[in-house]
Amino acid sequence: MKRLAPYAAVLAGVGFFACLGYFTYLARVSPTYPDPSTGLIVRMNDHGYYFYVRPWQGWLLNVGPLAFVGIGFLIAGIAQRRSWKLTAADLPRWLAWFYFAAFVGSAAYMFWRFP
Fold first, then answer.
1. d(CA 12, CA 111)
2. Where are the alpha helices (DSSP H) in 1-115?
3. What are the φ/ψ torsions at residue 3 (nearest 5 degrees)?
4. What predicted TM-score, i.e. pTM, was given to this entire model?
């Protein structure tokens, strides 16, 4: 499991940011009023801007990011149970650069999204 942990953590991170990207997409294209005929009845809030989505989308947008963060912590806990030191074989060079790029991308997104 220790060797699979970095890859599983990447998948959890991609899922987390996919949920955030889907939220941003729906905030742009969803109506600002409820429409029961199409099922857009769940109100979502983006810093005072309200938009309406379907119930399954509301569940995904509320629970999805928290679930992926929890999965990430679970992976970290399982992987670090035996040893706290990662070797070069546990973290390939491309994966280290991927983590760095994800960090830089996250910081850029936060500064761009929340001025």
1. 22
2. 5-29, 55-79, 93-113
3. -75, -25
4. 0.65
